[in-house]
Amino acid sequence: MKKKAATEIGIHSIDVTLDETISEKDLIREVEKLNADPKVHGILVQLPLPDHINEAKVLSTISYEKDADGFDAMNIGNLWLRGGEPPLAIPCTPAGCIELLQRYDIEISGKNCVVLGRSNIVGMPVAALLQSCNGTVTCCHSRTKDIPDVVRRADIVVAAIGKTEYVRGDWLKPGCVVVDVGINDKPDPTKKRGYRLVGDVNFEEAIEKASAITPVPGGVGPMTIAMLMKNTVNLCRHSLGMPRLRLRNKKHGDYINQTSTSG
Predict the structure, then answer these.
(1) Fewest Cβ atoms closer than 10 Å to its Cβ: which of 112, 118, 136, 204?
(2) Which pLDDT tens digit goes with each residue over 186-218?
(3) Is the pLDDT of residue 262 over 80?
(4) Positive or negative CA dihedral for 47, 51, 56, 59?
(5) Neighbours of 208 (CB within 10 A)
(6) Given the residues 67, 69, 72, 180, the one annotated as active site
(7) Secondary structure E strands in 24-124
(8) Given the residues 4, 46, 145, 192, the one annotated as active site
(9) Residue 225 burial by CB count (10 A; 0-12/13-18/19+): exposed, middle or buried?
């Protein structure tokens, strides 16, 4: 899907397909080749990697200026800082969540936002983005006490906890907005493959309470790919000394959704 999306918008993509028995040293060498290639503006390493390879070590090899996933420590650090330099790339799924909220004109500033999950991929970056849009953010995790009670106070719920239909309808505040990041297999004998895809939220129950909710599949997933394309464009623009395309707009924070060198 990533390659198809790139082709559709005119981004030239290169697949480097390697055998799963490749050594960590040789994989790192392949990444370094891409780092050195001026025609390559964004690099993404498809995870998970084989067990014998240290994922963190491989990912840290990717140049900050070519980090299409936005997971480089410099990008994550700049994401959390107020003021200073903005990240060159923003983690794709969290960026997609914010883009969805903004496109549907959903107010973030001043709202109680509850994020379920604290992963480096979704939970923590989306919490940072919601805060940057002036939301009041609570992050729930495996040690949080009485999660249903916390969720009941939320105006915006972002579910990224990795548990099938974990969030129930009676947890939700009437009129809240639900962004369901989860994607899980649920047994379904009526389906040819024997299962269907569902999120971390019980959709049928939640739709009775929520004013807006993302479907699974077809909600956050396509946005993740779109934000990967946007990151790649921004990295290309950076390499040419051009201003980046902002994520946040003025209505949802102190930012304008246009080209700029900051924000």
Answers:
(1) 204
(2) 999 999 999 999 999 999 999 999 999 999 999
(3) no
(4) negative
(5) 10
(6) 69
(7) 112-116
(8) 46
(9) middle
Write down the catalytic residue from 2, 66, 111, 230: 2
Q: What does the buried/exposed string (b/e) look like for 93-124 if buried means 16 or more CB atoms within 10 Å of the residue's CB? A: bbbbbbbbbbeeebbbeebbbbbbbbbebbbb
- Which residues pair with residue 180 across a beta bridge? 159
Distance between CA atoms of residues 127 and 140, nearest Å: 11
Give catalytic status of residue 2 as yes or no: yes
Active site residue 69: yes
List of residues 6+ apart from 119 with CB closer than 8 A? 160
Distance CA 222, CA 171 (A): 27
CA 99 to chain centre: 10
Distance in angstroms (rounded) separating the CA atoms of residues 120 and 2: 21
The structure's pTM equals: 0.90
Is a pLDDT exceeding 80 seen at residue 87? yes
